[in-house]
Amino acid sequence: MRKLSLILAVLFFACNSSKKPDEQAFLESLDSTKVEGPAISEEAISSIIQQIPSPLEISVLLKESGTKYDKGFLNSADNLSKYNSNYRKSLNLGIYGTDLGYTNIYEQNQDGLDYMAAIKELADGLSIGQFFDIETIGRLATNSKNLDSLLLITTQNFNSINHYLQEQNRANLSVLLLAGGWLEAMHITCQVAKKNPDNKELRDTIGEQKIILENIVLLLSFYKDIDQNMASLLNEMQKLQSEYEKIEIVKTYKESTFEVVDGVMVIKDNSTSEIKITPENVQNITNIISSIRKSVIS
Questions:
Q1: Alpha-carbon 111 to chain mean position
Q2: What is the tens place of the pLDDT at every residue in 195-227?
Q3: Which side of the chain, N or C, has fewer Cβ within a 10 Å radius?
């Protein structure tokens, strides 16, 4: 599975570089409590992003498992009006981005349009709407042949948004975007796994997230003493992490080799990992994720 940026790789955001951010509008939209927080370098966040599987990739896996589209797995776009703080807007912007990726993989265009509209409104509310070109998003998202272009554009765009938020002393919003997108991807995966208990690939995908969760917990921990909402989310994620400690990942090292892909010499990692995860582990993880998600979307 390719490693791509988690959140915006599913949001299908196309960056409109001709528009300059309206900094004053952004500052006016901030919550009353300013989160100064320790500065997390763009490089640190980008490094973690590269380790996180895109929800879009997970959606492809779900479709390939033979599971039918189920809108009931998703956070309804009708919940948009509930998100009236930057904390809730950021988390649910990530969640809706994952939902958009899911609808696109299953070619549910009408549902996709609803999520695109919700995404645009949340982005505008955070004063980062200038990074979201809905027309380009729609054009690319309706043609599966454009998938690689989409992923490249959206990865670049997340870096632009992250850079902008860093300049505004709002790196915490980048962290929340990531956390929300990952949480929704895991929620959908767990729900599908519940219906397909014998699907080893789905179980392994859930187990692999142990390492990813460690990174998300690390990012959230930077804000635990200065942001009550993020401290609360961290506490819930740490409960999930405790369950993940019961899962063992055994990696077998094999020497890398070189191969030619599309005329380019690349290094192939031949190492393998065995995920030791039980049905009970999956059930407990599913329950905890459902609980965290409910508190975020309600």
A1: 19
A2: 888 889 899 999 999 988 998 999 899 899 989
A3: C
